[in-house]
Amino acid sequence: MRVDIGNALASVASPGVSRDALDQLDETVARAHERIERGRADDEFGYASLNLPERTDAAAIEDAVEPLTDAEAILTVGIGGSALGAATVSQALGGLSADGENADAAPLYVLDNVDPARVREILAEVPLDRTAVNVVSRSGTTAETLSNFLVVREAMEAAGVDWTERTVVTTGEEGPLRELADRHDMPALDVPEGVPGRFSALSAVGLVPAAIQGHDIEGLIEGGRAGADSLAGSLFESPAYAYGAVSYALDQRGASITAMMPYEERLEYFAEWFAQLWAESLGKDGLGQTPARALGATDQHSQLQLYRAGPRDKMVTLVRARERADREIPETDIDGLAYLGGSSLGELLDAEFEATEASLAAAGRPNVRIELDRLDAESVGELLYGMEAACILAGELYDIETFNQPAVEWGKRAARGLLGGGDFEEADAVAEKTELLVK
Amino acid sequence: MRVDIGNALASVASPGVSRDALDQLDETVARAHERIERGRADDEFGYASLNLPERTDAAAIEDAVEPLTDAEAILTVGIGGSALGAATVSQALGGLSADGENADAAPLYVLDNVDPARVREILAEVPLDRTAVNVVSRSGTTAETLSNFLVVREAMEAAGVDWTERTVVTTGEEGPLRELADRHDMPALDVPEGVPGRFSALSAVGLVPAAIQGHDIEGLIEGGRAGADSLAGSLFESPAYAYGAVSYALDQRGASITAMMPYEERLEYFAEWFAQLWAESLGKDGLGQTPARALGATDQHSQLQLYRAGPRDKMVTLVRARERADREIPETDIDGLAYLGGSSLGELLDAEFEATEASLAAAGRPNVRIELDRLDAESVGELLYGMEAACILAGELYDIETFNQPAVEWGKRAARGLLGGGDFEEADAVAEKTELLVK
């Protein structure tokens, strides 16, 4: 993973960071790195996330899912950190159902919402007797996940399928899912201790579906290890810290939005994963940089006008892999299009990448480039680890609590109360909505 | 379509708009409405978009696509406004390929990027001899669209398929695609005059795939008509103007980000479509409100921490349909989850909607509710029209040029230059990239 922060410099962009300011910031980065390393050495809550490449037992995951590797479809039932890492990994390496048929991998369906129409569609589509169900919830009580699980279980029972033979559970040491797994002798993997969901991609939480699909999960972990090896006490020597430090510095100078724009269809979910990582970790105490998900080249025709000519309140991150399978564009005699003929889609995509990057710089809009050699397990693992480390570094620089998410509890209590799951004052507040209806 | 702006009031939120300020703003809204009506009466460039429900000839579209209605798959080759409207309509009414099999509609694949791996995947998946190709480009020279079209055409030829019998073209009066359609006697529909791509959903541009799929395009247009009928010289009487005016007012007070959060999986693409509409129209001269795409309930577990506890720089729009197909949650004896049993996924989704809305209000974060009766053609048409009208009103309030997108030209010239399509100084700038590489 290589990070080029040249277009974030004050000599190029406004907001931009001067070379002097980066040197100054680097002293704080050095101290932050020491703090992070101490946290890792103690396996401290949150910092332990950066130890996953050492802790995650790929063989144990592969053993646990072995009985399910003949599955023709995989259903991940989870939400947030319990789904986004898995979806990201499976899409990047191939096999997300939304991307269509894949000769090499059973398609992964992600049941991460409680829209009844969608749940019904998915249950009608998958061959229930040849589907592996992967339920993920640390607590075992996540309302959406458990509701969907109950529905999936009932659908399987109605279809005469023994769900206990088709299910793998990833959960904490205790809770309803752990009890269910024990009672029915189902494969059960551990949500890693001390690792918030959004940091758990390089654990069973993110790797089980990929393992069922036969992907190279050791390679992903190896990539994470390479990411760990590249951490250093200077942003100039650590791509991950360069990214985190520059994002923070740009936010300090007004770039309150960070647009994550991979030029890879297979990294579209990565941008979603990044959005949770960045938003949920850094959105604290009135601080935080808002992630905006984008995709190149598509969003040049949607967002680029705003990025170039709107408020100077954003940074754009462009991500690409240097090696790719390609497809020639045939020669053509169509007037004005001859220049495309004989080129290739990959060359066009690369030209768009460089043109968009340069167009942002020409408009003085800060942007950062992230490059991978190719989209393989090692590179993807290194990318995910790198973003996690960048986020943790940014959390140190902001001086916020990176590893919790207290603001989501209010809504959980309100929803539970509305459904009759207890007496919560939050539910009463719902009834007191201020209304100004226009129709 | 009903819009509730109660939670955007200063009595609830900060930033928030006082009732007095709304009354004051309403005078400007009245003048803006007059300006818009004048523009419509003259079919003026851009304002003509709001005349589409009167102009769009559903029968002509259905006639043009009639030979293709036996298609088992549809390939829309287009980008930006030439793809997002179609994808939105087909997803909302059913039949986007990414959403899986649909008993009622041939799946729509959207080729809106030049990622060679993805293009190859799609071409390998669709039955080329039973696929309808829908090429959309006003100019007929959009690089990504024409490159993809050349590749698709070659794939069909290689498969022994007469592409001229399987293709419908939507383009301007002139240009390479119009010439191609004339030369090969292919069905050709008009990109409407005076309507920028992002405002063209209720024209052939957005409706052709839905027509092939057998959806109720008259209903969509009828919904647009209802939207037009609901425009009035006061934000208190026009849901669309309420939405546009409040979004503008909140941005003036610091809500520079607008998170569009439908609680409908079938409106996920709607949020993408909205993002182009809002960003590309309003991102001018250092102004503009940045759209962030979100989805309920999923993103409660991703973005809500930031929305509630991050900077006070955003508004959130929650969208739902009141009637929906539902799915019961089975009774359960699992400890602590009994409250879910006997409820339904729809009730849970509604509880999450109301809880999230209330949780934002409790944290003083401005939010707006948009409700539809159900997700049918009329409601979807009204929603799309309403957002377009809201956007045009906002453009009047910002005093910017709503209907162009000049900032995207630089990158187009640079990309063309890089591919040898002419001498453009922008391409030279690409080679002068400032580099600060960390690896």
Automatic annotation (TrEMBL), chains A, B:
GO terms for biological process: gluconeogenesis; glycolytic process. It holds the Pfam family PGI. Residues 64-220 form the SIS domain. The active site is at 280 (proton donor), 301, 412. The keyword Lyase does not apply. Keywords: Cytoplasm, Gluconeogenesis, Glycolysis, Isomerase. Pathway: Carbohydrate degradation; glycolysis; D-glyceraldehyde 3-phosphate and glycerone phosphate from D-glucose: step 2/4; Carbohydrate biosynthesis; gluconeogenesis. It is found in: Cytoplasm. GO terms for cellular component: cytoplasm. Its main location: cytoplasm. One of its GO terms (molecular function) is glucose-6-phosphate isomerase activity. PROSITE patterns: P_GLUCOSE_ISOMERASE_1, P_GLUCOSE_ISOMERASE_2, P_GLUCOSE_ISOMERASE_3, SIS. It catalyses: alpha-D-glucose 6-phosphate = beta-D-fructose 6-phosphate. Catalyzes the reversible isomerization of glucose-6-phosphate to fructose-6-phosphate. PANTHER family: GLUCOSE-6-PHOSPHATE ISOMERASE. Belongs to the GPI family. This is Probable glucose-6-phosphate isomerase. The lineage of its organism: Archaea, Methanobacteriati, Methanobacteriota, Stenosarchaea group, Halobacteria.
